[in-house]
Amino acid sequence: MTVTPAPLDVGAGTVLKLQGISKRFGAVQALKNIELDVRAGEVMALVGDNGAGKSTLVKTIAGVYTADDGTMVFDGREVRVGSPAEAQQLGIATVFQDLALCDNLDVVANLYLGRELTAPSARGRLLDEVEMERQSWELLRQLSAKIPSVRIPVASLSGGQRQTVAIARSLLGKPKVVMLDEPTAALGVAQTAEVLNLVERLRERGLAVILISHNMADVMAVADRVAVLRLGRNNGVFVVSETRTQDIIAAITGATDNAVSERAARRSREEGSAS
Amino acid sequence: MNAIRPAPGSQASLREANRARVLGVVRQHGPLTQVEIAAASGLSAATVSNMVRELDQAGMVGLSRSIRNGRRAVLVSLASGGGLLAGVAFGERDVRVAIADEAGEILAHQLMPLQADHVADDGMERAARLLADLAETVSSGVENIAAIGFGLPMPVDAVSGEAGSDAVLPGWRGVNVTKAMAGHLRAPVALDNTANLAALGELRAGALRGVRNGCYLKFSYGVGAGIVINGDVFRGSAGTAGEIGHVTIDENGPICRCGNRGCLDTFVGSRALINSLAASHGPLRLKDIVTRALGGDVGCRRVIEDAGRRVGVAVAGVVNLLNPEIIVVGGLMSEAGELIMAPLREALDRCAIPSAAATVELRAAELGDEADIVGAIHRASVLSHTNISIS
């Protein structure tokens, strides 16, 4: 296992494509006919109100849930993801909101938990701590992470540093798609800056990044496109460089298509024609 | 910097190098325990212990009690003897902030991406909060910031402290930055254009060192210039000198954001470059264009070459007017290296009067994207010494 995922051709075609994904929990239709495509070297933000289906969609892509309907095309071929492990093997890495780090273990142990490197020795195969530490430093250096030591327990790291470790861990399996679930929630402004810089670096490495966030300022700062979910359905995909924050918020809240806004639009049209 | 250094290879020079290493680690990561310093610096625990004791006696670090892993530990942090200096430099898509000690040595810095067309108060609030966070990481408080150097990528009125009404970032138009920022951080603010600040930075610590008459060309999302005359940055009567991006290239050209027609920025600004590639390459960012051009993409190369040629024509005018010894090119676009420098040089040679063109040297910036923040810190340092109080 090497540390460096080979940089893909930046801007190469679509890596992940969802078509008509639907998911129902009993009486609740959580997702209905979701379409989404993510390209390499692109940050796609996924936004929506509470209960819009963001987390369900992420979990469906990550293999936690299986979709009732619809197809998923990854890297040019149709795939069925039955479990999180399968998704990871395909090259879809997910960093969930709780990060799933072991507080009592140090950074190296967390990075390599469950896939420790071993080296042969006189007493059989032993953990190759030296190599793991070397590769950990290498990876963190590539991400320009500000972590003082890889041998301190994760518990003593700041929120931003923990997020960095979790993202670094997801990169060890050479993924093509990285999903970040609310990476800047509950972080201070300096730590938020660190995570946003990290997202930019993932993008520069040619990875497709799916970023779930509630913070529009963060989304607008790093995303290339924004996909809006509303009540389990697609409610538009926006190219950030051509969109204002207000338009996206309108799509999130549904302000674009309710009775009040339609009446207001009608009235302003009438006034416009009267004057 | 004129102190006699110990002979290279001697024990004393090793000691000094180790000391610098310990200080560097603490500067980079903030307060650390000695064990962590040893891990991060690669020095032995005994050496670190010695160095910390020496540095403590010299008053260069402060020690405070803390708890790590349930054990008592001593945290080593940089001593902030006097006030801190702060530098803020806005770009079109990011803000860079730094905290420096009294001597102007940068202790901590951070870059934060921002959305395009961000509004001024949001940007300033983020910058202020970043500065407060950074001040804490160097184990000091925001109240210790003595002065702030503040850079914006647009014409600014250095006298009134306002961003120009023809500001390129619409969210900043006519905002009184000096007042607003002083309100956030309770420290005096020196406002300047980032091109001027970068020129100042290169003049103090980079490619313009010792230069009497020179020019710093900032080629990023837009084009700006910082002009050095008689060894000092020339700001003009209201601080807008060097706005080369709004030199008229084509009187019948497209309308610029500043309200004029056919400014240089309408041909080589980020929007123009991105739009010219939109049909063939889809939506790109400015940085993508540079990266792809370096990777061999012919379309991106062509766009960058054309931009270099256009800027070269405008720079030829500067060369004719000022006859500088040297022109330093910095900013995001300069990362394309010779791809941009060669056409720029060619256009300059073609359009400037031969005697002026023959004597001017075209050189890449040395401080990279740190130039403006170094300049901002320097402005803050000057401000804190002159002790101008804001009224």
Secondary structure blueprint with pairings:
The complex is a heterodimer of chains A (275) and B (391).
Chain A lengths: L13 E12 L2 E12 L3 E6 L5 H9 L6 E6 L2 E3 L4 H7 L1 E4 L11 H5 L6 E4 L2 E4 L1 H14 L16 H13 L5 E5 L7 H16 L3 E5 L3 H7 L2 E6 L2 E7 L5 H9 L5 H16 L1
Parallel strand pairs in A: 3-10, 3-11, 6-9, 9-10
Antiparallel strand pairs in A: 1-2, 1-4, 4-5, 7-8, 11-12
Helix pairs in contact in A: 5-6
Chain B lengths: L10 H19 L2 E2 H8 L3 H13 L3 E8 L2 E8 L5 E7 L3 E7 L5 E8 L6 H18 L7 E8 L3 E2 L4 E2 L13 H9 L3 E5 H12 L8 E6 L3 E7 L2 E3 L30 H4 L1 H12 L4 H9 L3 H25 L3 E5 L7 H14 L2 H6 L1 E4 L6 H16 L5
Parallel strand pairs in B: 4-7, 7-10, 11-14, 14-15
Antiparallel strand pairs in B: 1-3, 2-3, 4-5, 5-6, 8-9, 11-12, 12-13
Give a description of the structure.
The complex is a heterodimer of chains A (275) and B (391). Chain A has helices at 54-62, 84-90, 107-111, 129-142, 159-171, 189-204, 216-222, 245-253, 259-274; strands spanning 14-25, 28-39, 43-48, 69-74, 77-79, 92-95, 118-121, 124-127, 177-181, 208-212, 225-230, 233-239. Chain A is an alpha/beta fold. Chain A has a single domain (14-243), classed as Rossmann fold, CATH 3.40.50. A six-stranded mixed sheet of chain A has the order 6-9-10-3-11-12, with helices on both faces. The longest helix of chain B is centred in the last third of the chain and has 25 residues, at 298-322. Chain B has 13 helices and 15 strands. Helices cover 42% and strands 21% of the residues of chain B. Chain B folds into two domains: 84-196 and 371-386, 2-Layer Sandwich (Nucleotidyltransferase, domain 5); 208-365, 2-Layer Sandwich (Nucleotidyltransferase, domain 5), CATH 3.30.420. In chain B, a hairpin with a 5-residue loop joins strand 5 and strand 6. The chains are: A alpha/beta (275), B alpha/beta (391). Chain A: Residues 16-256 form the ABC transporter domain. Chain A: Keywords: ATP-binding, Nucleotide-binding. Chain A: This is Monosaccharide ABC transporter ATP-binding protein (CUT2 family). Chain A: One of its GO terms (molecular function) is ATP hydrolysis activity.
